[in-house]
Amino acid sequence: MRLYRLSLNSLQFPAPTSALHEPNGLLAFGGDLSPERLLTAYRQGIFPWYSPGDVILWWSPDPRAVLFPDEFHVSRSFQRFLARCDYRITLNHAFAAVVAACAERGSEGTWIGPEVEIAYQRLHELGQAHSIEIWDGDSLIGGMYGVVQGALFCGESMFSRKANASKLALLTFCRFFRQQGGKLVDCQVLNSHTASLGAREIPRSDYLARLGQLQLLTLAPRCWQPQTLSVALLNGEPDTGD
Q: The whole model's pTM is what?
């Protein structure tokens, strides 16, 4: 297998099945982060991931980490947290701020550089990328963002400034997304944190088949409108947010 160099004059990607085994899923390099190229990539189960300042790398790993909304695991300690939680939860109220916060990883490093922030902001303005925000009063303390593909949501990154804030964002999103007709959250590569929340690995072929099916589905009309999400979601009840 060989690594493909993308042309700036074409949006064509190689087949995901031609990705390298080591590093797992590395498929191509080069190109740009134009909205057209990003959406072309996501439609084929491909995503960018690289260090700021380096050449853009494109990936489609096998297996693929996914989270079925019904399988989100709520631990006993998290249940106790939810019982006393009074944070405010919103959808698409502060997309740029969420992406910027995800980029603030300090010594941990991050793949989200300025060009990535600009690129996903453009997708957001096109109605293709969305965010969940967790607020303590007027302070943004957690959230997540990603790219929608019909009834599948490609999660990109999340952050916490207080304990459980990113976990709360993902739980709320899963329950809201499911109520709107959503079926699957793409977590890309499994790690210990997402595994503890219920994410699991499936073969890339299975993921690509599901992607093709879920792209054809339409969610509820108001799904992505900026809104406040009801705390009733945390109890699995129907959302009655504003």
A: 0.93
